[in-house]
Design goal:
Helix content: over 70%
CATH superfamily: MFS general substrate transporter like domains
Radius of gyration: 20 Å
Number of strands: 0
Strand content: under 5%
Number of helices: 17
CATH architecture: Up-down Bundle
CATH topology: Growth Hormone, Chain: A
């Protein structure tokens, strides 16, 4: 069993949190092919992403309080077992309706990774250190979405789209064994919360009454919605509209993730000299400007790969700067209910992401216009959330 303060615990938590991006990113290159195989249109296949996010959002409201009561480890184990079974169900689906059901179940299990990974960081580190650890964890975790579409594209060519979900099942089954054998329980017994409806609603009421929490949570959710708009729309824009081969899609996605990693590493490096809110503002300036440039080019009819990918990479640098600060800031005031706070944080994040994905799918006209407009709107919304809330109600030590 690892010691709680071991650097290897951070690596393990990164692997736990990585289940979320793996489940969303690995099958992105296969989405157009899945539509053909299942007789579904682009909007229906994009809905498999939004349904996953909706299930992810709802499940977090349950798994967070359960983890505050029983500890992080048993809830993680149960969630990963469910994810394994649902992934096998996805691989065996013969219609888009069945696939949507298993994607929802997959989300219920997969939600435990990001929620309880964030909560475990808050359990183990004080708020100031937690922001730096979140950034480091996010940098390590970002390797998953960088590599996942490349793996998915290769599997699509060799063994079909079903093999992607079977690989996800194998990954989660392996994580069940590792968590059971080596992960220490991050939450000590004296900090566990009783599980009753009155206390649960009281916790959520206290969390939602905090302008500090709301400011950082909605700033995060808007930025993440912009990221998810690209996830949802880019397979159809790059592969169907701009002519990128499915096996090459992962290279463009990896370039986008490279921007995210760059922003995370900047957050780690600058975090030793600057306050978190300073880095947050830098990240928001970057996302807002790049999102507006991307949408402006699309409105002008400039539909080329550089016109899409260069602003998107810059947007992701801003995302990498922004997300660690907002995660740590939202949870800073709730050490005794970090699981519930992380759950509500994730619920807001995933709900806006699901809405952004559905919006991209419903407005999709075959070009990149709807996707870029949603990304630009997300950047503006994030800047507004910070300006009106978290700028006036900062977390302790953030200014």
């Amino acid at each position: 069993m690892l010691k709680p303060d071991s650097p290897r615990v951070i690596l393990l938590l990164a692997a736990v949190v990585a289940l979320g991006p793996l489940a969303t990113d690995m099958y992105l290159p296969a989405m157009p092919s899945m539509g053909q195989a299942l007789g579904a249109g682009a909007g229906e296949i994009q809905l498999t992403l939004s349904v996953y996010m909706a299930g992810f959002a709802l499940a977090q409201l349950i798994c967070g309080p359960l983890a505050d009561r029983f500890g992080r480890k048993p809830i993680l184990l149960g969630g990963f077992v469910l994810f394994t079974a649902a992934s096998i169900g996805c691989a065996l689906s013969d219609g888009v309706e069945t696939l949507l059901v298993f994607r929802f179940l997959q989300a219920l299990g997969g939600s435990t990774g990001p929620v309880l990974g964030r909560a475990a960081v808050r359990d183990l580190y004080p708020p100031g250190d937690a922001a730096r650890v979140m950034a480091l964890l996010a940098s390590i975790m970002a390797l998953a979405p960088a590599v996942a579409p490349l793996i998915g594209g290769a599997l699509l060519l060799v063994a079909g789209w079903e093999s992607i979900f079977l690989l996800l099942a194998g990954y989660s089954a392996l994580m069940v064994l590792i968590i059971a054998l080596v992960l220490p329980e991050p939450l000590p017994p004296e900090r566990r919360q009783p599980l009753n409806p009155g206390r649960l609603f009281g916790n959520y009421r206290a969390i939602l009454s905090s302008p500090t929490f709301l400011g950082y949570a909605f700033t995060n959710a808007c930025v993440f919605a912009g990221l998810f708009a690209f996830l949802s729309g880019s397979p159809f824009v790059l592969i169907d509209f701009l002519g990128v081969r499915p096996e090459h899609y992962g290279l463009y996605f990896a370039a986008s993730v490279g921007g995210f990693i760059t922003g995370n590493l900047m957050a780690v490096r600058l975090g030793r000299r600057r306050k978190p809110n300073q880095m947050l503002r830098l990240g928001l300036y970057t996302t807002t400007l790049s999102g507006c440039v991307m949408a402006g080019l699309a409105l002008a009819g400039v539909f080329t790969i550089p016109a899409l990918m260069v602003p998107q990479i810059v947007f992701m640098v801003g995302v990498g700067l922004t997300l660690p600060q907002t995660m740590a800031g939202a949870l800073a005031n709730f050490p005794q209910m970090a699981g519930s706070a992380s759950a509500m944080f994730g619920f807001i994040q995933m709900t806006l992401a699901a809405l952004a994905g559905m919006l991209v799918g419903q407005l999709h006209t075959g070009t990149s216009l709807s996707m870029t407009l949603v990304i630009a709107g997300a950047g503006i919304g994030a800047a507004a959330s910070h300006h009106f809330l978290s700028r006036h109600h900062p977390a302790p030590g953030f200014v």
